[in-house]
Amino acid sequence: MERYRLLENWLLEQFPDRQFTLSPASADASFRRYFRVKFDDGRTLIVMDAPPQQEDCRSFLQVANLFSAAGVHVPEILAQDLSHGFLLLSDLGSTTFLQALNANSNNIDSAVRDADASRLYSDATNALLKIQRVSRPGLLPDYDEALLLRELNLFPDWYLAYHLQVTPVAGQKAQLDAIFRLILENNLAQPRVFVHRDYHSRNLMVTSPNPGILDFQDAVYGPITYDLVSLFKDAYIRWDEERILDWLIRYWEEARKLQLPVAASFPDFYRDFEWMGVQRHLKVLGIFARLNYRDGKSGYLKDIPLVANYLRKACERYRELNPLLALLDRWESNKPGLKVGYTF
């Protein structure tokens, strides 16, 4: 309540002669909170509350400037108080890609539904290409080995230890470490660009111009396939592999035309995409478990099966990753009531 009062008083300083109301705008998986400021004339703005002891607004401001310069649609920064962690932003609306796509899932006309999805994902791909085209080193933190490995370790630290309640024995731990080294070898060898890090249907808003892009404060300079995994192998909505492949080919062809540093052959590019996905999905399984068991946010548990299915599919396709699949089978068989080998 104390932070809420501080936030409200700050807004009163910004708008001393205007009446407004505050309401929650969205929940975040971090310590950030967002509120919608609604004025008597119907105009709305968004205020971010990011406690300085846990969050740093400066990264949000830096990435907002970089992405805006790339020509993509991000919130405009209207006022800031970095000492308290408050930012006043333009409002990109309340309809995420996920909400729009789920609403369209009730449409009995599959052709209309598919056209809507294709339009949204085409817009998202075009925006991502714009961001990648202006990428250069030295502006954002490197997505280096230490960070990639720290993310991978969320899998044993939280998914295995808390969700499956297993502790790998010495031989299994050695196997997992060896698999992690293979994953990192691929990830670190990929060409690097600006990486949003959570470029998916919950952080993309249906706007004009489309999309509005949110939650970019953790952006880094890293593997070119990472944001494509976030977008096409989304933890919150499932697409058929044939459709993902079609969207990915379209991206790759356009990236080649724009002379972005993608692999020269599509099979090589697809392998990079899949291996990057293994890193992300191991990390996400750990994050979702941590959100539940540490932070009390149980809503993410329902998204675990889809992410686990992505991981399993990739492990089946690549011989070097088959040992990880065997480990998953063994570990998951120890948890009562957990179905091994998720299907949809």
UniProtKB/TrEMBL annotation:
<keyword id="KW-0067">ATP-binding</keyword>
<dbReference type="InterPro" id="IPR011009">
    <property type="entry name" value="Kinase-like_dom_sf"/>
</dbReference>
<dbReference type="GO" id="GO:0005524">
    <property type="term" value="F:ATP binding"/>
</dbReference>
<dbReference type="InterPro" id="IPR002575">
    <property type="entry name" value="Aminoglycoside_PTrfase"/>
</dbReference>
<protein>
    <submittedName>
        <fullName>Aminoglycoside phosphotransferase</fullName>
    </submittedName>
</protein>
<feature type="domain" description="Aminoglycoside phosphotransferase">
    <location>
        <begin position="22"/>
        <end position="251"/>
    </location>
</feature>
<dbReference type="Pfam" id="PF01636">
    <property type="entry name" value="APH"/>
</dbReference>
<keyword id="KW-0547">Nucleotide-binding</keyword>
